[in-house]
Predict the structure.
Amino acid sequence: MASTCDVYKNGTILGTGSCEDGSATISSYNDYNAGLAGDIDRIAGRRNVQIVVTQAGTHVGRSWNTYVIEETGSALTLKDACPFAGA
């Protein structure tokens, strides 16, 4: 079962998506870019990030640190898989 999660870099949210136990992919990834003047696309690829589980349940608020190997249009490939059983 997948859980929703947020992706952070130095306390700044880069985007949101779905994480799943044992998977090193954040699927349905949506990076934040409000499209306002001066706003920049928040790039996650090739960065050290923190993944925080946001879906209500036993793992809400838990997080792990990892590295984003690749960012595609709707997914992130991570160095480390989600460590939370049932997430």
Observations:
- The chain has a mean pLDDT of 90.
